[in-house]
Each structure stands twice: as C-alpha cells, then as structure tokens.
Sequence to fold (316 residues):
Amino acid sequence: MRAAGLIFRYILLLWVVSRTTAALADNIAESIHCKGGSIYFAAHPADILFYQTPDFYHDLYVFKCTTVVLFTSSGVGGYGTPLDSIEQGFENAVASMAGKPIDGTAWDQTNMTMRTRSIVSRSLKDLPNVQIIYLRLPGGMPDGQAYPGNKGGTLSQLYTQQVQNTTSSDNNNIYTLFFLNELLSSIMSERQANDICVLDYRAALPEPNETGCEHADHSVSARLVLEAMRYGRYRANIRGYAGNIMHEFNPSFQEGTVDYAAKAEALFHYAAFDEHMCNTREQCLSNASERPTNSTAHGDDPDFVAEWLVREYYVH
Ligand SMILES: *[C@@H]1O[C@H](CO)[C@@H](O)[C@H](O)[C@H]1NC(C)=O
Ligand SMILES: *[C@@H]1O[C@H](CO)[C@@H](O)[C@H](O)[C@H]1NC(C)=O
Ligand SMILES: *[C@@H]1O[C@H](CO)[C@@H](O)[C@H](O)[C@H]1NC(C)=O
Ligand SMILES: *[C@@H]1O[C@H](CO)[C@@H](O)[C@H](O)[C@H]1NC(C)=O
Ligand SMILES: *[C@@H]1O[C@H](CO)[C@@H](O)[C@H](O)[C@H]1NC(C)=O
Fold:
C-alpha cells in the first residue's frame, strides 16, 4: 500500500510539474504558421521598405511563407516617435503590399513565449503566412551608442558586450546576448525557411562617433542572424541587402514600374506614422536636393529616401 501511495504521489508530482511548465512552455513551434519561403531580418521596421523591397513585395505577391523579424521598433531619426506608431505604420505598409485593409483591422496578435519571455507577433488574418515578430530591442544612434533619452543599453552595446543585458522598449523582457542567440536560432530551426534575408553583414561596425558609416543596428542585426545560424547549425540561402551605401549606385529600377509603385505606396503608408520621414515623393526629393553636398548617409536619414526608393542591392 505504502509503495502504491508513493507511486501515486510521484505521478501526482509529475503531473503538477508538467502542468506548471506547460503554462510557461516555449511555444515557438506552435506560433509559426508555415515553413519554407523566406525570413526577412531587419534592424528597424523601415529597413524592410528602404532596402529589402521590392523583393519582400514579390514574396507577398506569390503568397510565399514570409516572416519579418524586427530587432528594434525604432523609427527614422531613431528617437521620439512611439513604438506603437512605428509598428502601426509598418503594418499598414505591409497590408498595402498584400492588398489588405490598411486601418489596422487586418492583423491578429499571438505572442511567442520562450524562457518566460513573451514576444509580440502579428499576422494577417486572411494570410497567416505573413507574420511579423517584434523583438523590440532598444535601437541606438548610427554609431551604436545610446541616445541621450535611452534607458539602459542598446542592441549594439549588447552585441559588443558593453552591457550584460538590456530591457526591451516595451519593458516586458530582459535580453541577454545568449538568450537572443537562442531565440533567433529557435525561430530559424522551427521556421525552416529556404531564404534568410539580412542587412549588410559585411559592413564594418562603426567606431564611436563615426559618421557616414552603415548604421550599427543594421550590421549588428545581420551578424547576430549569421551567428545564430552557426550556433543552431542551420543551413539556408543567405541574402544580404545593401543599406545606406546604395544611394551611391545607379537606380536599379525606374519610376513608373509596378515595383516602384508598390515600394512608394508602402513607404508613404509607413511615413504617415513616423514624424521624421518625408511624406511624399516630392518632399523626399526636396529633402535630397537640400542636403549639404558633404552630407553622409545614415540609416535614419530622410535626406536619402528619394534615392533608396529606386534602388535595391545585394551584398556579395
Ligand atoms: C501579448 O503581449 C502583449 C505585450 O506584452 C500583451 O499586452 C498582450 O496582452 C499579449 N497578448 C496575448 C494574446 O497574450
Ligand atoms: C543585468 O546586468 C546587470 C549588470 O549590468 C546585472 O546586475 C543584472 O543581474 C543582470 N540581470 C539579468 C536579469 O541578467
Ligand atoms: C564622442 O562624442 C561625444 C560627444 O561629443 C564625446 O563626449 C566623446 O568623447 C566622443 N568619443 C570619442 C571616442 O571620440
Ligand atoms: C524635409 O522636407 C520637409 C518639407 O519639405 C521639411 O519640413 C523637413 O525639415 C525636411 N527634413 C530634412 C531632414 O531636411
Ligand atoms: C559639411 O560642410 C559644412 C560647411 O562647410 C560644415 O559646417 C559641416 O561640418 C560639414 N559636415 C560634415 C559631415 O563634414
């Protein structure tokens, strides 16, 4: 009888433990809606529109399994516009490219959980193959340092180990570099994408106060993805996209094309929610023409948007 009682208590304990862990269980696998296709990793929401479109638009157009992972929810100009506004602007841009309503009603929210962190993820109600995952890490200035108003360390400072951890911009999660690496590699191994799209992984990380460099958030986000692929032994095609620097190259498509129309429309849906963006083609052109001739491009610089609108370049 005593043995039976012990076994019963043991089974009861197992049940309680499994119920408790189930409540906090990682649900990465269940919160992913499709496999194959592509994942676009970017530092800021606008990067997808500036640097990875029209490719991103083409994937939506053929209903590919398309996931966006955004490291920060910072806007152009980096600091000031609230996170909710930036995310809403980005969702409107994606909805416009997917031919869905652009008033926010097109999206469902389901959170991803991993090691007690809860990460917001939204997908299109009618097209759940289109999913956005918001890591909401704190963005930095072009050289990776904190803005005067920032609390705690930036994404770059975490990557270069100037800080041991940092709190997400929504104050809900604490990120360490190790956790970020595990999270990225879990997402990639569950998601099984064929194409991993990142920003410029070859650009040097800026020196403190350096100007004219690729924005530190861009190159850090790309490096983190490649490191997580190695850590998780995950193999896929890697496509790196040129960032700021592409304004120096020739246009890669023309105004008047379907690609231009899709990119411009999406960008201006986003711009309506980011106070630092130019809001029309004419305004972006005027910002470009008024910039000083020695002006150097940053990832947060509306002076270069007119050029980015007609360009998309790969890093080789
Ligand atoms: C998801 O997370 C957000 C922010 O952490 C929270 O406000 C929201 O209630 C959560 N939603 C669900 C469905 O759990
Ligand atoms: C975050 O880092 C600080 C040191 O910078 C440390 O005191 C703290 O315990 C860390 N918190 C977590 C949750 O890792
Ligand atoms: C960067 O600029 C700030 C503010 O101008 C200055 O305090 C700091 O010493 C500079 N750092 C370097 C490494 O030049
Ligand atoms: C861009 O143009 C708008 C309107 O023409 C102007 O208000 C804004 O200050 C300009 N921004 C920059 C960064 O030049
Ligand atoms: C550009 O030139 C102006 C005027 O000569 C100067 O004040 C400014 O500091 C220069 N900017 C850069 C980034 O070199």
About this structure: Residues 27-315 form a domain with the Rossmann fold fold (CATH 3.40.50). The mean pLDDT is 91.
